[in-house]
């Protein structure tokens, strides 16, 4: 089976653009290869307490996100090595694992900046105007995203995304570590991680309690910046 090289190239081109903005942690290793790095958090592990515990942040960042980065670098090496063999054949498992782990890295890199110890409250300015236009009110947006987060079976993400075609905001969910842009074409603005590792150390199986807590630490300045960039450039990049 021939590897879908064009599809994979598009995935990584979009992914690297997102990661440069989200993490500023992509460093070149060779002309044909870039190595991915675990981004530092813009706050201490305990800075989001009591809403998100220090233990949760430490494990989520230093173990779970770090593993996605480790796997991404290993799998991309395997992918390049397979292509360099000259027959253009790449095992399907490598392709799927590469997509999964790149999604895990990109999604989390956005997620950390979507949170802040000075977060919570309500957005302001153009973002709030757009929320009221597309959802009726800020409370309606919170309700829709909270309900969507509870509706995910298993693991996934709930997103507030920007639709560049009709210039509106949309609330959608993605399974596992699927990338919002790859799945829907939307630009990610705000993500809620509803994998169990995001809340089980503090909230056990009570996903609802976690979702209520996370609204207290949403970094609306970051979300607004992403919205303003997406709207002004009308591109899929953040």
From TrEMBL:
Binding of Mn(2+), residues: 60, 108, 193, 197
E.C. numbers: 1.15.1.1
Subcellular location: Mitochondrion matrix
InterPro entries cross-referenced by the UniProt entry: Fe/Mn_Superoxide_Dismutase, Mn/Fe_SOD, Mn/Fe_SOD_C, Mn/Fe_SOD_N, Mn/Fe_SOD_N_sf, SOD_C_sf
Ranges where the Manganese/iron superoxide dismutase C-terminal domain occurs: 123-226
Swiss-Prot/TrEMBL keywords: Manganese, Metal-binding, Nitration, Oxidoreductase
Major site of localization recorded for this protein: mitochondrion
Known catalytic reactions: 2 superoxide + 2 H(+) = H2O2 + O2
Residue stretches making up the Manganese/iron superoxide dismutase N-terminal domain: 35-116
UniProt GO cellular component terms: mitochondrial matrix
Molecular function GO terms recorded: manganese ion binding; superoxide dismutase activity
Function noted in UniProt: Destroys superoxide anion radicals which are normally produced within the cells and which are toxic to biological systems. Destroys radicals which are normally produced within the cells and which are toxic to biological systems.
Quaternary structure annotation from Swiss-Prot or TrEMBL: Homotetramer.
Family: Belongs to the iron/manganese superoxide dismutase family.
Record-given protein name: Superoxide dismutase
Taxonomic classification: Eukaryota, Metazoa, Chordata, Craniata, Vertebrata
